[in-house]
Design goal:
The protein is built from 19 helices and no strands. It is an all-alpha fold and about 400 residues long. It is globular and about 60 Å long. The two termini are about 30 Å apart.
């Protein structure tokens, strides 16, 4: 399966790949729905695909077992270089990229979140995914569940990274994901598999709204047309996200008691409920800032949204529910922290996400929080104003 120069013996390679599989954003808990099992034969047929898996697994092991001259780090860099070389050759020579190349691109992006700390992270692989693969679904709509999950994964990844990089203001980029949402909605192979998903029932239209909100933030102050777009998004979000929902009664009282108390683990339905509420709070915070750019974290209605948000973040902390998908809304809610207790909750959750989101991602978010919670020369706390600071946003890598 692997060439003789590879540093990881073939007998152990599968263990490294399985280790990498646990870090995939948008992958599914059930092995039948990950991109490993259905594409297992391609590991032998396309070495670059195998190298991408090994690079990610070795990078995680290097951080799990740190050392000045870690052999895992050297292996990760070696396999990463081989994977890039093979993928580049394929993209340059193929009119239509194959499925293994799509999966390799996603793996290489996640490698950036766990990989070499000496090199600055890059979103180049997300840009490649947009350029080469999302448009491929226009020509070849999903024909099976695996293809649908890949489309959902790409929509999610493009959306959550859009807040932290510049896009074309209200141009083609604003509606970029619309056509892929239409393809997803028209698909006949969407099943009730949300129970297996890291998205826990969060649907692609939610991420399309996040993509559009991120684009609008770059246009503040908004003109009349742009303000009407906020209203359209708000109406759409009311259909998908619950904002003022309450916690399930049988464990709500336990959670509200103490941030240090551990409560029983949530069921999948409860996880989905809480995730929708957290995303709802984050989206409404962004929409409030878009409508009133001068709004601060101390003012209503943002203060009320913050109270709801930290109510739910405390909930996921005390029940040990650490989902990498919650990193985006936690960043937004973190900006509106107004008390040391709220800052502690946001910090603890992002810190605990390091194992599943990558330490580089968590570190960049914590630095962003430090800037948001610090004092400026005119003795004010930037807080939610950092949503409008492109330079600060560019320092975040998720």
């Amino acid at each position: 399966m692997f060439d003789e120069s590879a540093s990881i013996p073939t007998a152990h390679a599968w263990q490294v790949i399985c280790h990498a599989n646990r870090a995939i954003h948008g992958a599914y808990f059930d092995d039948h729905y990950t991109i490993v099992v259905p594409l297992f034969p391609l590991l032998a047929e396309f070495p670059a695909y195998a190298y991408a898996w090994l690079a990610l697994g070795a990078a995680q092991l290097a951080q799990q077992y740190p050392a000045p001259d870690s052999p895992w780090r050297l292996m990760a860099l070696s396999y990463h270089s081989k994977a890039l070389h093979g993928l580049r050759r394929h993209l340059e020579s193929s009119a239509e990229p194959q499925e293994w190349a799509l999966c390799s691109t996603l793996l290489l992006h996640i490698f950036e979140k766990f990989g070499d700390e000496l090199r600055p992270p890059s979103d180049a692989h997300v840009r490649s995914a947009r350029r080469y693969f999302l448009r491929r679904f226009i020509q070849c709509p999903p024909t099976n569940m695996r293809h649908t999950l890949q489309l959902e994964s790409l929509i999610y990844r493009v959306a959550v990274t859009s807040l932290f990089k510049k896009t074309e203001k209200m141009g083609k980029d604003y509606t970029f994901l619309d056509q892929f949402i239409e393809i997803w909605e028209a698909s006949s192979v969407r099943g009730s598999l949300w129970q297996h998903s890291l998205w826990i029932g969060l649907q692609p239209p939610i991420f399309n709204a996040i993509f559009k909100l991120s684009s609008l933030l770059q246009c503040v102050p908004l003109n009349e047309q742009q303000m009407s777009e906020v209203g359209i998004i708000e109406q759409a979000m009311a259909h998908y996200l619950e904002l003022h929902a309450v916690l399930p009664s049988h464990w709500a009282q336990e959670i509200l008691g103490s941030e240090h108390k551990h409560s029983p683990a949530m069921t999948l339905v409860e996880q989905s409920h809480v995730a929708h509420c957290i995303f709802g709070v984050a989206c409404w915070i962004v929409m409030t800032k878009l409508k009133n750019p001068k709004a601060t974290q101390e003012q209503e209605p943002i203060r009320e949204l913050a109270r709801i948000g930290y109510h739910f973040l405390n909930c996921v902390l005390t029940t040990n529910f650490f989902s990498p998908v919650l990193i985006w809304p936690t960043i937004v809610i973190g900006l509106v922290a107004s008390t040391p207790e709220e800052q502690t909750i946001a910090t603890l959750y992002i810190t605990r996400l390091a194992d599943v989101s990558g330490p580089r991602a968590s570190t960049s978010v914590l630095r962003y929080f430090a800037q948001a919670w610090g004092r400026t020369d005119d003795d004010r706390t930037p807080g939610i104003d950092l949503l409008l600071d492109s330079a600060a946003l560019a320092t975040v890598f998720i």
